[in-house]
Amino acid sequence: MLKVSGVQNPELTNAEPRVCRVVIAEELGLLRDAFAALCESAGSYLVVARCADGLQAFRAVLEHRPEALLLDHELPGLHALELIRRVRQLDPPPQCVLLSVRQDRKSVLEALRAGATAYVLKTGPGQHLLDALDQVRKGGVYLSPLLDLSSIFAPARKSPVEDPLESLSPREYQVFMMLVEGIRAKEIAARLELSPKTVDTYRASLMRKLGIHDVAGLVKFAIARRLLPEQQCKTA
Fold first, then answer.
1. Which residues, in sequence order, are CB contacts of 208 under 8 Å at separation 6+?
2. For residue range 11-25, what is the model confidence (pLDDT) as tens digits?
3. What are residue 67's DSSP bridge partners?
4. Fewer Cβ in 10 A, N or C end of the chain?
5. By C-alpha distance, which of 204, 166, 168 is closest to 185?
6. Strand stretches in 95-215, DSSP E
7. CB 142 within 8 A of CB 136
8. CA distance 132 to 118
């Protein structure tokens, strides 16, 4: 049976507890405040910055050098996975706790490949967030118990021909998910720090691989694969 948490660093498990500094990156102010209140209610976390987009968060990490970065999957300004890749290059890097509504296999795996050390579902209770922070500060990895880990980490049984989604590169998948979420190409380019022409190239490539010729078709494909939150599926 797969465990929610990973292997802990033995050098850290017996260390004396100390306050862990946290930067929060979430677009919605109400959620930023809620996450901050939850973290500080535990007594062992100090929120040193609250940011509304990825670029603000990156600057805050450089300024405060926190032990943990709590960030939303759908950050404006700079894509969450790009932000994770940047901060993981710092020495020492913060532990990255990604908050998401996505439960599909590819989203989880791409987040882990980017360097996230925790993947927490927003549909879960607040205790899951505290559990994730506790786990990563000990050197472990946390995955929400609401995820179907057996299917996420099962060997791929379908080839890219049978499952065209598996044929998308990490960048193509990022562009695909933002397109089906209704984000315009210009904003996608800004979040990924690419030129609009490059985004158009990725869009054409992913549509060719999926055999779909317009954004409406991409949205229908995403709904059929349950890649979008329920609320978004109802309004699509």
1. none
2. 444 544 579 999 999
3. none
4. N
5. 204
6. 95-100, 118-121, 142-143
7. yes
8. 6
pLDDT at 173: 92
Closest CA to 126 of 3, 35, 48: 35
Return the CATH number of the domain spanning residue range 10-152. 3.40.50.2300
- Within 10 A of 84 (CB to CB), how many other CB atoms are there? 23
> What are the structural domain ranges in the chain?
10-152, 164-235
Q: Give the domain 164-235 fold.
A: Arc Repressor Mutant, subunit A (1.10.10)
C-alpha angle with apex 145: 141 to 146, nearest 5 degrees?
130
Sheet holding 118-121, edge to edge: 45-51, 20-25, 68-72, 95-100, 118-121, 142-143
Residue listed under structure tokens 């996975």: 81
Return the C-alpha torsion angle 32, 33, 35, 38, nearest 10.
170
pTM, rounded to two decimals = 0.79
Instruction: Walk along the chain (236 residues) in steps of 10 and give the mean pLDDT of each run.
Output: 45 60 97 96 96 96 97 93 96 96 91 96 96 95 94 69 81 93 92 92 94 94 82 51
